[in-house]
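pls design
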């Protein structure tokens, strides 16, 4: 799976979780972070400076992993992508 596909998959799951639990602010944060990453990966957003602030992996570890392992796994993958991009590495 490409980085774009991984982020889009995570975003689709996050939006479903957000719709199911609209009062849970964590999902709002995750969706915003994933939308930013999707814009960067598509070239729509050129500012990568916020990439180092992506914390979806922390949410996955602390809040999601025990109750939703599928979602947590894709968020861990996204966090890896964000970490590489924050270091200026190319992701493919």
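designed seq:
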């Amino acid at each position: 799976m490409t980085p774009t596909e991984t982020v889009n998959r995570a975003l689709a799951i996050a939006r479903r979780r957000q719709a199911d639990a609209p009062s849970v602010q964590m999902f709002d944060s995750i969706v915003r972070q994933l939308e930013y990453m999707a814009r960067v990966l598509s070239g729509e957003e050129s500012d990568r400076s916020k990439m180092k602030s992506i914390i979806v992996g922390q949410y996955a570890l602390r809040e999601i992993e025990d109750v939703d392992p599928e979602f947590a796994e894709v968020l861990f993958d996204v966090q890896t992508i964000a970490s590489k991009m924050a270091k200026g590495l190319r992701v493919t």
